[in-house]
Amino acid sequence: MFLYLNDHSYYDDLYDLHTIEECLDWYWSLRKGMEQHREELKTKEPDTDFDKEVHKCCSYTVNVIKINRYRHKKERISEWMEADRRRQEKIDNATPPDGVRCDKCDSATKVIDKTLHDAYDDNMRVSFIFECLKCQKRQIFYEDGSPWDFKRPKCKDCDVELKTKYEEKGEKLTTITYCPKCSFKEVDVIDSKNKRIEREKEEERQRKILEEYRSEFCLNDESGPKAVASLDGIVALSKKWKEQEKKEKDPIFQKAKKLKKLKLNQLKDLISKAIVDNGYTDLEFSKPEMGKFVIVEFSATDSKDDREEYDSTHMLKKVVKSALESTNWRLMSEGIHYRLGIVSGRLKAYEREEDLISLVK
Ligand SMILES: [Zn+2]
Ligand SMILES: [Zn+2]
């Protein structure tokens, strides 16, 4: 019976083997691509050691592949093992249908083998070979009792079922499919000796490359996590750089960057100078609120007796807004309050980059 589930080391070897092959493939195809530029570089930069540079460049790419292979290794192996475990359980736990009797002599039968069909898709089924205890005639049934639905191919010319003959010579199995009516004949030779030799050669090749390259391309649980963390660090950093570069090119970002970031003292000076020329005096600031944003309330006295609420609030609003335009401070949306010639309002400071950008948008 076919064994689906292997022990962990089998999957570990298989995964590492794929890693090595992927790394080597990349390395050599990159080298080949660069080789075309050897002469070009020789004339341009005669002092550069071409081989050294190319090796450095290819190794960098291969290193990234190698780290990513390590990153997914545990997960992939557990997926493989889980899938094979399901196959193994399916065939191990399948129960043969009851009461199958020989269809030739009606004697009792016994199960001599079972097979898992469609093992690699979703509708796996198990079939059993029953052999008659008396005449040895064989029949095949699935778990649910339905017969094996193998349809013999028919001869295209005569429309009769083709027959099969087997000839075994040493490790060579010849299957001859022929038509009983006409001369149609198909010969298929399976040379199990050749197959065995090929398989042994392949196993030897795999064993060799595992031995030769495993330590170079397959990270272990000590070096692996460190390499993953450092690669992620580099990737995050270069992403940040790229974003920064893109931002620097954005006119809105440039505008936001140019906003003057005023300290409270500088703000007081600026507002004071701006309003005094327009007839407001006694400027005072309250204690600032230190929340997500810094907010500070101010009040002043309108020294022009003939200026009423509407004109006074409008004038102050205009003056304050234009004074703050090139800074990171803004008059809050509720605007200016007016009572008995006293004007007041609140100012809010923007500090974070994204808030500054939203200011200039
Ligand atoms: Zn029988
Ligand atoms: Zn025929």
Task: Indicate the low-confidence ranges by residue numbers.
Answer: none
Structural class: alpha+beta
Which molecules are bound in this entry? Answer: zinc ion
Fraction of residues in helix: 40-55%
User: Percent of residues in beta strands?
Assistant: 15-25%
Task: Report on the biggest sheet.
Answer: 6 strands, antiparallel
| Count of structural domains | 3
Provide the succession of SSEs: HHHEEEEEEHHHHEEEHEEEH
Tally the beta strands: 12
Average pLDDT taken over every residue:
91
Provide the gyration radius in Å: 42 Å
Q: Characterize the overall form.
A: elongated
CATH topology of the largest domain: Threonyl-tRNA Synthetase, Chain A, domain 2
N-to-C CA distance: 72 Å
What top-tier CATH class of the largest domain fits best? Alpha Beta
Number of helices: 9
The CATH architecture name of the largest domain reads: 2-Layer Sandwich
List the defining traits of the structure above.
9 helices; 49% helix; 361 residues; alpha+beta; elongated; Threonyl-tRNA Synthetase, Chain A, domain 2; binds zinc ion; three-stranded antiparallel beta sheet; 12 strands; six-stranded antiparallel beta sheet
Report on the structure:
- The chain is of the alpha+beta class.
- The protein is built from 9 helices and 12 strands.
- It binds zinc ion (2 copies).
- Residues 155, 157-158, 179, 181-182, 184 line the site of one zinc ion.
In a nutshell, what does this entry contain?
With 361 residues, the chain is α+β, with helices and mostly antiparallel strands. The protein has helices at residues 8-35, 38-44, 50-93, 192-217, 223-249, 251-258, 264-276, 309-324, 353-360; strands spanning 109-117, 125-132, 138-142, 163-169, 172-178, 185-191, 280-285, 289-290, 294-302, 329-331, 337-339, 342-349.
